[in-house]
Amino acid sequence: MTKMIFVNLPVADLAASTAFYSALGFTQNHMFSDETASGMEWSNTIKVMLLSHDKWKSFTSKPIVDAHSAAQVALCVSMESREAVDEITETAGKHGGKADINPKQEFGDMMYGRSFEDPDGHVWEPMWMNPSMATDGPPAEAAVDA
Q1: Which label site among 50, 66, 77, 122 has the fewest CB atoms less than 10 Å from its CB?
Q2: How do beta strands 27-29 and 37-41 pair?
Q3: Residue 20 three-state SS
Q4: Residues 64-111 pLDDT 10s
Q5: Helix and strand tally (H, E) in the chain?
Q6: 54 pairs with which residues across the strands?
Q7: What's the topology of domain 65-137?
Q8: How far is CA 29 from CA 18, 119, 121, in A?
């Protein structure tokens, strides 16, 4: 079976968050959506559950972190090109998120990444990696001495 990831995120405004993720290219799965949750699919293997604060609290007694002021997680996702990294980051900034909350990650022909926050402050890091890196690793001159 293919491994999948299901990311659960507490959100203050379910409708606004659903619209934000839709603008980024996610599709709402109505089978997993109601007035307390919005199941959003980005691919066959990446799913995001947007949960109202009340729904979130039914899963854990831990307090909801204010992601605008405290770091909790950075969700790094691969993109097919540098242009796709730029497009999703800029789209996030135009639809209620914040683009480039961290410095760009520029590693020449090897890797490129940016970051953005969703309306609730959850951090996403879209990145592109040269496909040869996955099979060959970094070139010898890029290796770091341990």
Answers
A1: 66
A2: antiparallel
A3: helix
A4: 999 999 988 899 999 999 999 999 999 999 999 999 999 999 998 899
A5: 4, 10
A6: none
A7: 2,3-Dihydroxybiphenyl 1,2-Dioxygenase; domain 1 (3.10.180)
A8: 11, 20, 23
Helix axes 82-94, 14-23, angle to 10 degrees: 150
Domains of the chain, residue spans: 1-63, 65-137
Amino acid, res. 3: K
Taking the C-alpha atoms of residue 33 and residue 141, their distance in angstroms, rounded to an integer, is: 49
Q: 1-63, which class in CATH?
A: alpha beta
Same fold, 1-63 and 65-137: yes
Which amino acid would we find at residue 144?
Answer: V
Cα 142–chain centre separation: 27
Instruction: Say what the pTM is.
Output: 0.86
